[in-house]
Specification:
- The complex is a heterotrimer of chains A (251), B (288) and C (316).
- With 251 residues, chain A is an alpha/beta fold.
- Chain A is 41% helix and 24% strand.
- The mean pLDDT of chain A is 88.
- Chain C is mostly helical and 316 residues long.
- Chain C has one domain.
- In chain C, helix 3 crosses helix 13.
- Chain C is globular and about 70 Å long.
- Classes of the chains: A alpha/beta (251), B mainly alpha (288), C mainly alpha (316).
- At the A-C interface, helix 2 and helix 3 of A face helix 9 and helix 10 of C.
């Protein structure tokens, strides 16, 4: 049985169909890339899965349980964590306190010391150990992104939804982030990754799902996706797709 | 026929409510500040009209200009000098600040004018006429028409003039407006001044209808709130729709449960709206 | 960090007031205790959770009338006070569910209007509440001195309860959740915090003891009427007190209540006709010159001193 199953999920805002009849199955241990042009509905889909929005239609099953319609805090406690494109720390608290919050409220740590231990474990894993007592607002952007990952880890998630975790990072920082994501996956966390950077998607993911205007237009191995006509059309427009198809049949 | 009269009364009252609220709505929509001083500004406008009439024989409809100008100046100074320093501060800070300023203004008015209720007794009132069975109190009607005219002028100002467009720009996106060369601080002060101006002019017009006393300021403030929540924030049309709606609802409500409960009806309506539809009839949400 | 011993000593000293002071001083002490209850309670929803509540007057007035009506029906005073707390708490729970999903200005206004609506209902329901004519409470068969002591110690007990409540919340799970909610409500949801539950708890706590204070006040003054107990000033003053002392701290509200009471007495005795304006000036001054309250000022000064010591240590 799949870990996370979306069947016919749609989300409509007024007149806008942000997510259109999406089916998706994610197996444990996968790293799935979610790509698509701007406005394709990727973040909305993540919002729907994590409970920020209720789907207008369709069902979402996680670990055998229906989660569509549950509140975000309930879904978090069941084991679905997500990060935000624009990081959302608790600015006036230290790194340690920031990570103790999910340890306490999502992972169910029963005492302050248990929460601290769980938090430090996640903090050390993400390489933030030396900054544990710094205020979240004092970290660099890369640091804050790592904090966000630490908070997600402290929730002991089974599925982690990462929304553009590399936005705003320089190439060196991106390489470090890739390593961290791989390390998290090795711990047994299933990952769904929204990304714009092709190199990240190609190297990390074993499967890619492409969204366009809210609908799933392609799904499969990274190599196959880059050659898929519909995908090329979605990103680059009709003329390029035709030119590419013409080149392929000639060359 | 009877219902038509109730409706007419409601509309006349509503037009005045709209005039009270439109300045308040503008300030809330553009500066994201709930101006507790608004009610006292209205009362101050009434006093200006009262004293202008009693000491100089100037008709309140003419005083509208005087009250407007004086209140604009006061509003501009208060904003530029004091409120500007907390624009963008949390809700609590701005609310408590304008509350504190209102305490000062209200207390000053109490000292200067005492709490005694005064009314403007016109030497030559226009009286009432009856047209096809409907009783039209002419002074009130003219006041309401003047109120609508002023509101319309404000609408034109916002739509057509340079400064009006600057105000709308700041409302939509403060940073973008600043990047376009708009002097945001000045616009804030102008907007607040306009808010005070509209309050003062409303007060002048109301001096013929409501008794004047500093004790009334919270009632005007309450009415302004309700109109904004009812009609939607920051837009002239919202204030008009909200004002007229409130006037009519109160008028019919008074029929059902008595006129002394007019304010209760309004407040209960406010709570219900806040719980279920804070964006109001026109659906425009203010800043939160 | 709060050291327990000095606080206990301070409370004992205050409790001993009747031995040293006249009934006038006792009256001031009772007012101080009442202000402390209001300020501590508000601090939970306004300081810890960051929700600008103006509902204090609603809880106070509701408690006052609940207590007064029960006493009029023959219920013994302490029971009436306890019942008033419960009435306020239930009201807070119900209204909280209705309005806590609102943010910022909308929440502030909704909470403010609660008192207005209660005032109108109370004034209209003459058969139960005496309406605009007010309500008299049964006379207590005790000497003036004994009464003064009774109400002083009762209100002081409530104030100590409020302090303990605030302290427990601050160091517990609830306080942690409220801090997170204040700093980033969306992220709070994401890390597993049931924000509706914790906000409602905070709102209920902000009303529980205030209801009791209202009932005690009614018993103390023997006569209440709607504009007196539902006055908007009852909502504003605790906010000013907490701003004065320092929001989000455990002792800040107490310090602020004391400071406010002193200022209020001085102004009342010397500037009666302009006391509202003076309060306004205090508020304006507070916002511009003391935005973090007295505690915030102390904290900054302490930080500056520590920094100087550190620098001196480094250069030595």
């Amino acid at each position: 049985m799949s870990l996370l199953t979306l069947k016919g999920v749609s989300k409509v805002f007024g007149g806008l169909r942000a997510v259109n009849d999406v089916d998706l199955s994610v197996e444990p241990g996968e790293i799935v890339g979610l790509i698509g042009p701007n406005g394709a509905g990727k973040t909305t889909l993540v919002n729907v899965v994590s409970g920020v929005f209720k789907p207008t239609a369709g069902t979402i099953e996680f670990d055998g349980k229906r989660i569509d319609g549950l509140k975000p805090y309930q879904i978090s406690r069941l084991g679905v964590a997500r990060t935000y494109q624009v990081v959302q720390p608790f600015p006036e608290m230290t790194v340690l306190e920031n990570v103790m919050a999910p340890a306490t409220f999502a992972a169910g740590a029963r005492s302050v010391s248990e929460a601290q231990d769980q938090a430090m474990e996640a903090i050390d894993f993400l390489g933030l150990g030396s900054e544990a007592n710094k205020l979240a607002s004092e970290l660099t952007l890369a640091g804050r992104k790592r904090l966000e990952l630490a908070k997600s880890l402290a929730m002991k998630p089974k599925v982690l939804l990462l929304d553009e975790v590399n936005a705003g990072l320089n190439p060196a920082e991106i390489d470090t982030a890739l390593e961290l994501i791989r390390a998290i996956a090795r711990r047994g966390v299933t990952i769904i990754l929204i990304e714009h950077l092709m190199k990240v998607v190609m190297t990390l993911c074993n499967r890619i799902v492409v969204l366009h205007h809210g609908a799933k237009i392609a799904e499969g191995e990274p190599r196959a996706i880059t050659k898929d006509e519909r995908v090329i059309q979605a990103y680059l427009g009709n003329r390029y797709a035709e030119a590419n198809a013409g080149k392929a049949s000639n060359g | 026929m009877f219902y038509a009269q109730i409706l007419l009364n409601g509309l006349v009252l509503g037009g005045l409510y709209a005039c009270i609220a439109v300045g308040f709505s503008l300030v809330w929509g553009v500066l994201n500040i709930i101006n507790i001083l608004h009610g006292s500004f209205v009362v101050l406008g009434s006093y200006i009209a009262y004293f202008a009439y009693v000491h100089m024989g100037i008709h309140p409809f003419v005083s509208v200009v005087i009250a407007g100008a004086l209140l604009f100046g006061l509003g501009y100074l208060v904003q530029a000098g004091l409120i500007n320093r907390v624009v963008g501060a949390p809700v609590l800070t701005t609310l408590v600040l304008t509350f504190g300023l209102d305490l000062m203004l209200n207390n000053s008015m109490l000292l200067a004018f005492s709490a005694d209720y005064r009314t403007v007794q016109l030497a030559n009132p226009l009286g009432t006429t009856v047209i096809s069975g409907l009783v039209l109190p002419l002074d009130r009607l003219v006041a309401m028409l003047l109120a609508c005219t002023l509101t319309g002028l404000l609408y034109l100002l916002l739509k057509r003039s340079g400064i009006g467009r600057a105000i709308v720009a700041v409302r939509m996106d403060r940073e973008a407006a600043a990047l376009m060369g708009v002097n945001v601080k000045h616009i804030y002060a102008v907007t607040f001044g306009i808010g005070a101006l509209m309050a003062g002019t409303a007060g002048s017009l109301l001096s013929l209808i409501f008794p004047i006393s500093p004790l009334n300021s919270s009632e005007f403030l309450g009415l302004a709130f309700i109109v904004c929540v009812l009609g939607g924030l920051g837009s002239i049309s919202g204030a008009i729709v909200g004002g007229l709606a409130l006037g009519v609802i109160q008028s019919f409500g008074a029929l059902l449960i008595g006129p002394q409960h007019g304010l209760t009806i309004a407040f209960v309506l406010l709570v219900i709206l806040l719980i279920f539809k804070p964006t109001g009839i026109m659906g425009r949400r203010g800043y939160e | 960090m709060i050291r327990i011993l000095p606080i206990v000593v301070a409370i004992a000293a205050v409790a001993a007031l009747p031995m040293f002071g006249s009934n006038y001083v006792l009256r001031l002490g009772t007012m101080f205790a009442m202000y402390a209850v209001l300020a501590q309670s508000w601090n939970i929803i306004g300081g810890y959770a960051g929700y600008p509540s103006f509902a204090t007057a609603a809880f106070f007035g509701l408690g006052a009338y609940a207590g007064a009506i029960l006493q009029g029906a023959g219920v013994p005073m302490p029971l009436a006070w306890g019942a008033a707390c419960l009435v306020a708490a239930v009201f807070a729970a119900v209204m909280g569910l209705a309005i806590l999903h609102l943010k910022g200005h909308y929440f502030a206004i909704a909470s403010l209007v609660l008192a207005e609506v209660l005032l109108e209902i109370t004034t209209s329901w003459t058969s139960l509440t005496g309406g605009g004519m007010g309500l008299n409470l049964p006379v207590i068969r005790m000497s003036v001195d004994a009464q003064a002591r009774l109400f002083f110690w009762s209100m002081l007990t409530l104030a100590v309860l409020a302090l303990i409540m605030s302290w427990l919340v601050a160091r517990g799970r609830v306080g942690f959740a409220l801090q997170c909610i204040r700093q980033n409500e969306d992220a709070s949801s994401m890390v597993g915090i049931n924000t509706t539950l914790y906000k409602t708890i905070a709102f209920v706590l902000s009303g529980l003891l205030v209801g009791g204070a209202g009932a005690m006040y009614a018993s103390w003054v023997f006569y209440i009427e709607p504009p007196d107990v539902y006055s908007v000033m009852t909502s504003i003053k605790p906010i000013v007190m907490v701003m004065l002392g320092g929001a989000g701290t455990v002792l800040g509200p107490v310090v602020g209540a004391a400071a406010f009471l002193v200022m209020e007495e001085v102004v009342w005795r010397n500037f009666l006709s302009i006391h509202a304006a003076v309060l306004g000036i205090i508020i304006v001054g507070l916002i511009f010159f003391l935005p973090n309250g007295l505690f915030g000022l102390l904290r900054k000064r302490k930080a500056r001193v520590l920094l100087q010591l550190q620098r001196r240590g480094e250069s030595a």
